[in-house]
Amino acid sequence: MTLRNAAATQQRILGHARRLFAQHGYAAVTVKDVADAADVSPNLITRYFGGKQGLFLAATRVEIPVSDSVGGDRSGLGSRLAASIVQRWFGAPGEDPLLVLQRASGERPEAAEALAAFLDTNALEPLYRYLRNSGLDEADARSRAAAIDAFVLGVSTRRRILRSELGDPAHLQAWLSATIQRLADG
Fold this sequence. Notes:
Elements lengths: L2 H22 L6 H8 L3 H8 L2 H8 L6 H4 L7 H15 L5 H8 L4 H25 L4 H24 L7 H17 L1
Helix pairs in contact: 1-2, 1-4, 1-7, 3-4, 6-10, 7-8, 8-9, 9-10
């Protein structure tokens, strides 16, 4: 097997793992389930990822481009964040590593800890710094960032984890934009 084929096989395995973990949760998915979906031997999963735990960790590497949304004037923050959120939620359904991690956080304490730490570092803190730099005092910036973070996580949990309908993307984006902006403005 060439390195290029190995890399393609690993990516195929990860894609199927993300989808299966997102749909069924960590506990319900077996290495064999992922191997069957990816049309590979379960031994390859052990070889590439060390087993189910390693596969899960690889499948839940997450990036949130909050820094793309926290530039510019505060009056447009809601619009920028909402556009980024809706793009993520509708971009690759069932394969979003953040969705996988959110769903697993109820089953696995280490997933919950990883999710909390990740969100603190990659969403809450950049948002706080942005609001602080936009002229708010420290306490106000912290409370508004926390309110936005809690709102987005709550909506994400309700709509994605509990599997409520996301609805029309344009309507959802407009609603998120207005609500986030109200929270940012206090």
